[in-house]
Design a protein that fits this description.
Layout: E1 10-14, H1 22-32, E2 36-41, H2 43-48, H3 51-57, E3 61-64, H4 70-84, E4 88-93, H5 99-102, H6 112-135, E5 139-149, H7 163-185, E6 188-194, H8 200-203, H9 208-218, H10 226-237, E7 248-251, H11 262-281
Parallel strand pairs: 1-2, 1-4, 2-3, 4-5, 5-6, 6-7
Helix pairs in contact: 1-10, 4-6, 6-7
Bound molecules: nicotinamide-adenine-dinucleotide.
């Protein structure tokens, strides 16, 4: 159901790779809510995924950009301003990648070159995008910038590796730049800490299926889906959340406030019983 929440608004959406991507769902919802959007991803992702299909659906254009590259980001912002005919109102940063995770290199034997790439792609790119927008005075007053984070920024989750450090930095950048951009232009900057979600990036996380089941059992409302996340992003781009800034907003069905749930306890008990059965058989 559409509410025209973004009627007349314009924004850049980074990170739609395929129809599982969180950014893909956000783009669809933003279009439905009346926004004009520009899509961006790396040239490689544009070849591997099907973002052109999304652009057609949303009457949008796709501008390739490696978000770690200042010249690419500058070109993207300039092209977006041409397309929009001036400044725009919102940005979604939905970008994450760790070469260490991809290559299965554990945190306690980390490759530092990979580590720097993780930080650059998954966190510094957020700073680079915001800094360039500010230099080019590209965002309207009362605009909204959102990046996607994960609870591993606050709590240790086995196997999340250097992405946890990147997410902690990402959330800190939202606070540090949120102060500067808020004071100057009333532009708000927040991160959404999303449930595990079956996407290309999500599925690359160690033990993803177990994690998905565990967080679903632990959360009173169950895991938040990519569609749910898109709905939440829309509220943050809309004028209904003008005074929300510098926050990390948990969007996880309640997971981050839980210690133990009945459903998780039952599953844990079941594994004890299975062990007992096995012992009896031995
Ligand atoms: N899936 C989950 O479980 C989950 C949970 C919490 C947060 N997140 C975060 O959500 C965001 C989106 O991920 P997703 O789950 O939709 O997966 P996804 O794989 O669909 O999206 C990740 C995107 O990052 C893009 N990207 C990688 N390097 C880039 C670069 N240098 N420049 C520009 N773009 C680049 C990829 O091309 C891809 O489109 C990420 O920040 C991720 O960490 C995901």
């Amino acid at each position: 159901m559409a509410y025209n929440l973004l009627k007349g608004k314009k924004g850049i959406i980074f990170g739609a790779l395929n129809d599982q991507s969180i950014a893909w769902k956000v783009a669809e919802r933003a279009h439905e809510e009346g926004a004009q959007i520009v899509l961006s991803n790396t040239a490689v992702a544009m070849r591997l995924g099907n973002v052109d299909e999304l652009a057609e659906k949303c009457n949008s254009i796709v501008v390739p950009a490696d978000a770690t590259n200042a010249a690419d980001v500058e070109n993207l912002i300039a092209k977006s301003m041409d397309f929009f005919g001036g400044k725009f109102d919102f940005i979604l940063h939905s970008i994450g990648m760790s070469p260490n995770v991809r290559k299965g290199i554990p945190y306690d034997n980390i490759n530092y070159e990979n580590y720097l790439k993780t930080i650059d792609i998954s966190a510094l790119s957020f700073h680079k995008v915001i800094q360039m927008c500010r230099k080019m005075d590209a965002i309207n007053d009362w605009g909204s910038i959102v990046a996607l984070s994960y609870v591993a920024a606050q709590r240790t989750l086995y196997g999340y590796n250097d992405m946890a450090d990147a997410k902690a930095l990402l959330e800190s950048i939202a606070r540090s730049f949120g102060y500067i951009y808020g004071r100057e232009k009333k532009i708000r900057i927040n991160t959404i800490s999303q449930s595990p979600t079956p996407t290309t990036a999500g599925s690359g996380v160690f033990g993803f299926q177990s994690l998905l089941d565990f967080t679903d059992r632990m959360s009173p409302l169950g895991n938040a889906s990519a569609d749910d996340c898109a709905d939440y992003c829309i509220t943050l781009f809309s004028d209904l959340t003008k005074k929300v800034t510098m926050q990390n907003l948990f969007h996880d069905g309640g997971f981050s406030s839980m210690g133990m749930s009945e459903s998780a306890m039952n599953q844990y008990d079941k594994s004890f019983k299975d062990c007992d059965e096995l012992k009896k058989k031995e």
